[in-house]
Write a structure and sequence with these properties.
By secondary structure, the protein is of the alpha+beta class. Helix content is 39%, strand content 22%. The protein has five helices and six strands; from the N terminus they run H-E-H-H-E-E-E-E-H-E-H. The longest helix has 20 residues. The protein is globular. The N terminus is likely disordered.
């Protein structure tokens, strides 16, 4: 039987992982892009980044072997989560979009004020360097923490 987090567990209560927040954001963005692709000549795809999942193996030999194989096949550190190619004004435009875990909040029992429960994710140096290189080549690049922020970046991308 699947629990509410989509995991198979018999009587085991599981909490969502912090990465699930980033995953949820990327799913929302992909749904948005699916709707956009109905009216715009475009394609998009996610860049597989299985390394964060490999760390759960706890087998350093397997992790090292998988990492070496991925590097040999062209894996690069810092590549953005989503790549978008769109045809605008009779030319192709390229956009790189990185998603990061949004901050979560809770209400303080002492003060009743809203306080940060989980800080937002931060782009790594290699992710920022990749986006900078992409911009130097004339591509669009942005980091988003919410769907609304992505939609603002999307408008900038379309207008650039």
């Amino acid at each position: 039987m699947f629990n509410k987090y989509g995991c198979y567990a018999m009587g085991v209560k599981l909490k969502p992982h912090r990465e699930d927040l980033e995953h949820g954001l990327q799913k929302e963005i992909c749904t948005f892009l699916d709707f956009q692709s109905a009216t715009l000549p475009m394609l998009y795809f996610a860049v597989p980044n299985a390394l964060k999942f490999l760390s759960t193996l706890k087998d350093t030999r397997r992790i090292s072997a998988a990492y070496a194989k991925m590097r040999a096949e062209g894996f690069k550190d810092g590549v953005s989560d989503l790549v978008v190619v769109i045809k605008r004004d009779n030319r192709l435009k390229l956009g790189f979009f990185e998603q990061k875990r949004p901050a979560t909040y809770k209400t303080s029992e002492k003060t009743g004020k809203r306080v940060i429960n989980t800080p937002a994710g931060k782009p790594t140096e290699s992710q920022l360097a990749f986006l900078e290189e992409a911009r130097k080549l004339g591509a669009y690049g942005a980091v988003s923490y919410t769907l609304e922020e992505f939609q603002n970046h999307w408008q900038e991308f379309l207008e650039s």
